[in-house]
Amino acid sequence: MVTPDPEPTPEPEPTPDPEPETPEEPETPEEPETPEVPETPTGDYAVQRGDTLYSIAISNGMTVAQLKALNNLTSDIIVPGQQLVLTSGGGNVVTPPTGNEEENAYTGDDLPDLTNAEVTAVNYDVKLNGKVEPFRSTLGTEASPISVVDHFGERFTVTNELTIGGETFLELTQNGIVSGYVPVSAAVEVPQGVKTVYLDAGHGGSETGAYHFGTAEKDLNTVISNRLADLLRGQGYHVYETRRTDVEVSLTDRSQATNEIMPDIFISIHHNAMGYPNTGTARGIEVLYHDPRIDEPGYETLEHHESTDIIPEGIRLSQALQDELIAATVGTGTVNRGIRPQNLHVTRVTDVPAALVELGFQDNWTDYQLITNTNYQTKLVNGLLNGINAFFTGIK
Ligand SMILES: [Zn+2]
User: How many Å lie between the centroid of ligand 1 and the Cα of residue 323?
Assistant: First the structure.
């Protein structure tokens, strides 16, 4: 610890950048969920174990019907080693999907009839994270499917697995009532009957975050995140953490891990700074969230979030955290900066309700004394815990 500077003379406050030390990482283009199919120079493809007509079709930018027509297939059954034609003449491989195509890849005609599928009774929870698969309401093909994107992020209990022609579909229920059926690729299993929280301690490793009065932000973030994780587990939550130790993790790795897990909420933990050496005049606690109003070119709200409750629930989560942080620190002289939208990678790209908390200004001597004090840190941890409980009980 260096000798702290005296408290600076108050001056007009510029709006601080909450994350001046974190340049926005370039967006990784979204890849289709299905693995890429190797291409031979002729455009032919040897069926591999685990392939389905659907997975091959979508990897090559065609529908199952097109793939079947191209190969004169009369059934949906394919076997490993079977050669399939992927080109419609001229030797040109069909352009694979760009990953931005979020329209339904199936038509009603492509859907296998599940009435005669092999049924396996199961009992586990999933969240839907598919973008191109069909969501069908019936076992038969009489009803047109809708896109699974319309149910993106929703939690269901799977009661039956239906297998036909090598493809597996999940029977989705909510409160014991069947909601519909999706291919297995459209869902990810989540812990049953347990609320899940992803805690993201900001920065780490060579990325110190803010660094003022001899303290690195990354270390303050870890103290709060680790203590909060332990308390949440004690209350029965299932907790995922970006890191518990001083390691570097890219922003993309943070969001990708979140999106593979599909927790119920994502909370990134940070401390603030105005960006000048130890002379910050801004103080207080704020919580940041994503909102389409602050979209910038190249950093737009993801299309598959638009029709979901991901954004409104992220705002509700942010308000619950802010309210409880302020309630827990009452009498300490901290400042309530409120909640506001800010275009940040981890709150924009994560596929779940997300909030980024800024627990105090490290470059302000008054705030610094608070956020490095163990008793005050306990108040912050309790505030975050109360905010999470309030969010899940619907009180906030
Ligand atoms: Zn930070």
Answer: 21
Domain map (residue ranges) of the chain: 30-93, 111-190, 196-393
Residue 295's CB is within 10 A of a number of other CB atoms, namely 14
Q: Return the bridge partners of 238, or none.
A: 196
Please provide the CATH number assigned to the domain covering 30-93.
Answer: 3.10.350.10
Helical (H) or strand (E) element with 161 = strand 155-164
Neighbours of 87 (CB within 10 A): 16
Give the neighbor-by-neighbor strand order of the sheet with 118-128: 177-183, 167-174, 155-164, 118-128, 187-190
d(CA 343, ligand 1 centre) in Å: 14
Ligand 1 centroid–CA 171 distance in Å is 42
For residue 141, give both structure tokens.
């093909």
* CATH class (in words) of the domain with range 111-190: mainly beta
Q: Is 196-393 a domain of CATH 3.30.499.10?
A: no
Query: 10 Å Cβ neighbour count for 246?
Result: 15
Kindly give the distance from the C-alpha atom of residue 347 to the centroid of ligand 1, in angstroms, as a whole number. Answer: 13
Could you report the per-residue pLDDT of 74-126, keeping only the tens digit for each?
666 677 778 887 765 433 333 333 334 344 455 556 788 999 999 999 999 99
Enter the pTM of the model: 0.74
Burial 5-29 (b: 16+ CB within 10 A, else e): eeeeeeeeeeebebbebbeeeeeee
Which tokens hold the place of 213?
């009065």
